[in-house]
Amino acid sequence: MESPELTFTLAYIVFSLCFVFTPNEFRSAGLTVQNVFSSWLGSEDLGFIQYHVKRSSITLLIHSALPLGYYMGMCFAAPEKQLGYIHQVSDGWRVFLLLSLCLQLVSWTLIIYWSRYHWHNHPISRALQAHVQPPYSSWGSVATSINTEFRRIDKFATGAPGARVIITDSWVLKVCSNLLPTIPVHFINKQERRVFPYVHNEKVTTYHVHMALQNDCHVTVTDSRQHELTPDSASPIQLLTLRVESINPAVRPFDIRLISTDYAELREKLHAPIRTSANVVIHQTISDLFLDTFRAQVDLNPPYTLPEGQEVEPCIGCMQVPAGTKLVRLCHAEGADNVLECQQCFCRPMWCLSCLGRWFASRQDQQRPETWLSSRVPCPTCRAKFCILDICVVH
């Protein structure tokens, strides 16, 4: 029969590894630093920089306390060792306790050093200081800019929970909330369109937030890898590695990773130039390829001029951009009994071109993409049938 000492040791090692590397099971159960200390950390949406300064600091303290926690646990798991009496324990345990206490002391000393002058010495604050240039007068104003843009709903966010990629109007951010050495792909969350987790070789630190100003950086697609999923999904996924480099010498380059289906959305949000290495091929989905062709075909149609006094409202599909399309019956193709197949739509402009294109693609036979451009679908609002020739861009 296994001894309580060995059982506790194995259990504590497994718990420590899971707490540090945070698998999905621990994350779902709420056993993360963010969840356990949520009341002290506050809201990430209200103060992005302040939240991650606190998160990285408490994470350092918790990680450094794991060896000491093991010693204290062994006091109860193996009472016969009398580990609570320092003068009676063996030299090996005494050295282990001393090293554990020293590690905890060093961590507290480092946290105190970071917190001086309102966390001026924290690694995140130092990263902010690299961007102190007009129009930013101090690293505090840089933090305010990031906090403000992070609160906006139109930011782009993707990536695994432990290594998120966030792109705002002015910033490219990479947030590492747990240590991730090399973890295999095992499933994809189709609702959130993210891979949990994914393979990478970069050393990720949980005590830092990578950031680069869009106006100062350029992005290069350096690598792409194809990964097969579990039998639950028949299609593979492609993971792209993008290198973010800034002309600011104080900003260190860093890599961001995302699945290829998010690449088109990233390009729309990212104003910095994107280059692709010669040996990298990006595989878009059929829907993404169709959207590119869909936009090109619609651009060939005559534009629609708004009546005087009518204003363009936000797209009801995404609520992020103005409604830029109007359905006007331009196609005169006749079907059976000489009845026009396309119908007149009397709706005002309510959809942007991207949302209307996604609606158009969603109504098609997914097994016959060659028929998509010639098909007719109902208007998403009034159900009047239209084809691609009836879509006009609002001018």
UniProtKB/TrEMBL annotation:
InterPro entries from the UniProt entry: TM129
A Pfam cross-reference name: Tmpp129
Residue ranges crossing the lipid bilayer per the database entry: 58-79, 95-114
GO biological process, one term: protein ubiquitination
Electron transport among keywords: no
Record's GO cellular component terms: endoplasmic reticulum; membrane
Keyword list, A-Z: Membrane, Transmembrane, Transmembrane helix
Top-level division of the source organism's lineage: Eukaryota
Cell compartment(s), UniProt: Membrane
Membrane found in the keyword field: yes
Listed GO MF terms: ubiquitin protein ligase activity
Primary localisation category: membrane
Membrane topology: Multi-pass membrane protein
The family this protein is said to belong to: Belongs to the TMEM129 family.
PANTHER family, per database record: E3 UBIQUITIN-PROTEIN LIGASE TM129
Protein name, entry field: E3 ubiquitin-protein ligase TM129 isoform X1
